[in-house]
């Protein structure tokens, strides 16, 4: 009887009691996991009324534009919509797009809920105007230049986008998340585990592009350059990236620039930005100022500072106002440089421009968790169940949204994050897009395979995404790899959200590669992702040896190596059969020829977008990230290098004829100035 009650409560709150794994097997979830997840959501699973209906209205009502609301109200109830501008309208089809409030009166009692009116389908101009788009994918922190301070920055991004547009005909540049990082070292290396998705990381600022740098006297300008020189020297090597040293130097330089008097026009622009951002920016900057003293996990702060809305926090913000102002100023500088990167990309001829990546989560003690409070679930960590490539599952580290609390807030926190990502972009990639339907949640302290799925109202989540992208006229790509319910892909395609199809995963039930005509059209087609080895490493099975050394294999290394080699051979045969690769090419000896053939294969698919990894076109062999590891592998600290292990700088992409020739050969029919004609 208790198990029946637990199952009913779990169903009421969207907690899965079983799931289908990557092999298609039904796996039950242990009752202890279910209870832990429910309690983290604030639900007592033993309470007699835990499974009872929660009220007349759902936490939020979502209506597609032009369609009749499907909410059924009692016959005695009367509903009216208070729109965003304060107008009152009947609860009927024809409501304007946006976030409103539904007010329902029944029996003299008034009930209200957020009401979202969202587009039925996303139809961005770039996809209307171009039958196909292609672009370069890069981890921008790894793409350095002679002028950057040891890690790639927003000027490097602008120059990469401009070069790939003008010389290669690219339509977009897809980059890693540039979300906010800690205000003081140590800096978390993973761009997918930020302190905030609402704001950006000042690590990406090009110091010399801040206009106040030009106003420094020669002595202070030389002082700034003394900070940069050792970082630039290291940036000309293949040594691992050191974000801590870079941020120490950049922060010192930026503190100098912050004190420089701004010209009247600059001061007016700053004030306009601060007014636009309002309270959320003050809260983020306050968290940053407090984190400088108490650490970047607010859960370890003094008790009266853990509530972002408390009077104690307000008093501390006033006491530390110069530091709060500094962090607000940093975000303004970032906003300007993000805008310049997008403007440069579009001026170079890109139809889309920069496509920013939105991470699935944030640090449990970071700024977003502090600012958004109960909209996130403490005690749970977002992850992924075991799959073909990660047999132990994944623990991505951050807390999930609380489905009920987020909906009660009209999906406002999610919308703020989306608006920020799209402000200076032509598109957004949604990491683990299935998280808008359900998220694999792992109780803190448990292993990644000991979790369960937490379900969301996908109409609200996807509707919020489509609304934000519609207003920005942006392309949306969802990363829908791994264990995905088939209907999820259908729903996203119906809403105009592209999926992600990865060459290595496109195979039938017998493991044979799919022919290009069998691929779906509504997708971004790529050879691999940042969580998979570069092609050169995949072809040689180096990745198998790496995972064996790290203890990540779920079967003997000999079996794993044989499976990897068999997969490469199947793809080699297909590429030869299609006339894309010469029969006598040895994939291990000539990986560039295979990369070119694979890109030619992608061109033969009906995919609406094609993404080419910069690592593959320069011959990089090292993985950016090895799932299942933290400190065991230098994740997210790998600089861009060539097949010979030499550093590749943006300057070389622009000027070195040998490098450009190699890239053109490796791109095959995708690039060479023909991209927009595909």
Automatic annotation (TrEMBL):
It catalyses: Transfers a segment of a (1->4)-alpha-D-glucan to a new position in an acceptor, which may be glucose or a (1->4)-alpha-D-glucan. Keywords: Carbohydrate metabolism, Glycosyltransferase, Transferase. It comes from Nocardiopsis tropica. The keyword Translocase does not apply. Its EC number is 2.4.1.25. The lineage of its organism: Bacteria, Bacillati, Actinomycetota, Actinomycetes, Streptosporangiales. One of its GO terms (molecular function) is 4-alpha-glucanotransferase activity. InterPro entries: GH (IPR017853), Glyco_hydro_77 (IPR003385). Belongs to the disproportionating enzyme family. NCBIfam families: malQ. Pfam families: Glyco_hydro_77. This is 4-alpha-glucanotransferase. The gene is malQ.
